[in-house]
Design brief:
Layout (H helix, E strand, L loop, with lengths): L13 E4 L4 E6 L5 E7 L6 E6 L2 E3 L2 E6 L7 E7 L2 E2 L4 E2 L14 E2 L33 E3 L22 E4 L19 H4 L2 H10 L3 E4 L3 E3 L3 H5 L10 E7 L10 H12 L3 E6 L16 H9 L25 H16 L5 E4 L2 H4 L1 E2 L2 E2 L4 H8 L7 E4 L18 E5 H12 L5 H8 L3 H4 L9 E4 L8 H4 L35 H19 L4 E5 L32 H18 L22 E4 L8 H6 L2 E6 L6 E2 L5 E2 L4 E6 L5 E4 L6 E6 L13 E4 L3 E7 L19
Parallel strand pairs: 12-13, 12-23, 13-16, 16-17, 17-20, 20-21, 21-22, 22-23
Antiparallel strand pairs: 1-2, 2-6, 3-4, 3-7, 5-6, 7-11, 8-9, 10-11, 14-15, 18-19, 24-25, 25-28, 26-27, 28-32, 29-31, 30-32
Helix pairs in contact: 9-10, 13-14
Amino acid sequence: MALAVWPGKPHPLGATWDGRGVNFALFSAHAEKVELCLFDADGQREQARVALPEHSDGVWHGYLPQLRPGQLYGYRVHGPYEPHLGHRFNHHKLLIDPYARQLVGRFQWHDALCGYRVGSSREDLSFDRRDSARYVPKCRVVDPAFTWEGDQPPDIPWPRTVLYEIHPRGYTMQHPEVAEKLRGTLAGLSQPAVVDYIRALGVTAVELLPIHAFLDERFLVERGLRNYWGYNTVGFFAPEPRYLSQNAIHEVKSLVRRCHDAGLEVILDVVYNHSGESDRFGPTVCFRGIDNRSYYRLESHDPRHYVNDTGCGNTLDLTHPRVLQLVLDSLRYWVQEVRVDGFRFDLGVTLGRERHGFDTRSGFFRVLGQDPVLNRVKLIAEPWDIGPGGYQLGGFPWPFAEWNDRYRDSIRRFWRGDGGLLPELARRLHGSSDVFEGSRRRPWASINFITSHDGFTLADLVSYVNRHNEANGENNRDGHGHNHGSNHGVEGPTPDPAIRALRLRQRRNLMATLLLSQGTPMLLGGDEFGRSQQGNNNAYCQDNPLSWPDWTALEGEEREFLDFVRELLRLRTRHPVLRRPRHLHGGETGTHGFRDIQWFGPEGGEPSVDHWHHAHCIGLLLAGDAGEYLAADGSPETDDTLLLVLNAGTLPVRFRLPGAGAWRVLLHTDPESQHPPRLEHHLPLGGRALALLMLDTGANPDTPAGALSPPASP
């Protein structure tokens, strides 16, 4: 197969179709030769190898005028195999282009994927000459053309944002209104029945677990399992092939467009902290074979070993300019070409590490803050990794929001009935000002969540004390050991009506607390109708009905619970006092005499110090006419005055209502409570229950006495 090869250009990196031919550009600072391998339409037969003729500033490049979109390709990179110096080149291994826009086929595990002879005790003393091409997906040249039909991103302000975390495959695997051939794909996720359901729920953004191409770890495949969550990326521009129904790249853009049409933003969970090539005994499928010493952080005293701040075997080196460029180019691609609305960064601390450790002025953070494309989208950090100083909640710079695990654990423990938690509860309800306000960040910077993909579902949180991960094949040693859950008397499912009723009430309490707190709430998909994983709190390898939402659950009490969640979200939308743009400190007083934020005990007035440290019941008042809000159009607006009463104790309370006016009950979680339309003096509230009340503005309340904020320390 004779091919014309021109010098081409060193930019842009990747395979770029210009209407006449394809330019190929690959960075490798230490390579001695780079070969472009072209494959037939099935990716089974290598038709030609072409040495890229030019080398400019570490980039190997060439232009082939005969090629068209659809062409399958990969690379073979020649260079030294010297692991003791950090070099692991092996031209017998077919390599994925880091900038590939699409992969065709799937990884098939075989010893030939490794650059060394598997079984050797010293990978630096053995060299594997077997060809790996048949076991590696092929890259495809794509035509990026797509008709957006006037697409307009919703551009929802942070204070109005409600996140909904779902799995791109599992969410539709059992959906009755999605055609079987589309289930588990992005095309299935974009079906009207699915998008309409999410929109009607009342959330504003879909947060998708990773859709970047990834591989299944070998130990999982050997157990008959697979990587379900997808945190094992090998391609930062290409969608995972198993998520495409007809191998059509436009399915990703179609999903985004349909979500935008429904007023929903799309947030991608992304993994730039490590790659799926694992530690030094892992496969050679991409970065390791292209330029191991440039792409990865290696131990300075022994470059055979990888720095492992991620716990996944390797750590990408974002201090290297070309690796930083790779990450930023990927982010810009998904914003500019695919039009996503933001990102959630897995193990975000790793991305901010310089040689001396985590640094808010790292190259990654500085470039993001200055980039006119990326600093306008939503950026969310998982603020930890396992490296030194790896817990950095509240330590990320503008414009980041952060997953707040202190919120998760505090709310779980409060409703479990743990004592001494009122000061901590108050700070979390308040938007975690103790965490974020010191760096002049707003309440929305706190991503409040009680459940996520990692851990118990909401139904399991109130049904199990212990993890039950036996199906993972790791002797139940994996996953969190401290879940702050309660089974309320019986571990797992039970026919006992009293326990079932209590569990349902606790789910209402937890969900209501989440959606009535200051900050940005995140719901786990399926929690709104009781999805269970049978106590598995680490279902990362369970691509089966254990993890897939069961849509038949939307019957009986689960339909009622779904309606309850929808009402909560409507309340949050209607009442801007529940999503204030700034932290409150009782500094402003409204026309009815209440301050912008006040705390009350059941007896009325400011809770005593003893109450803060020993009681289980508290009232939070938010004065809607104290201070200023911004409406959707940017104009100032006011709101009603709301009172949130939480009682995690087992005994009922008679909560004295503040002021001399009347209150109306908007919502409560105790089905046995019978409230008149208007309450003037006391709120009767059962044990383990919550109520939200609104001041009846037709009354004339006196100025109450109340606390401004919880004690500074528990």
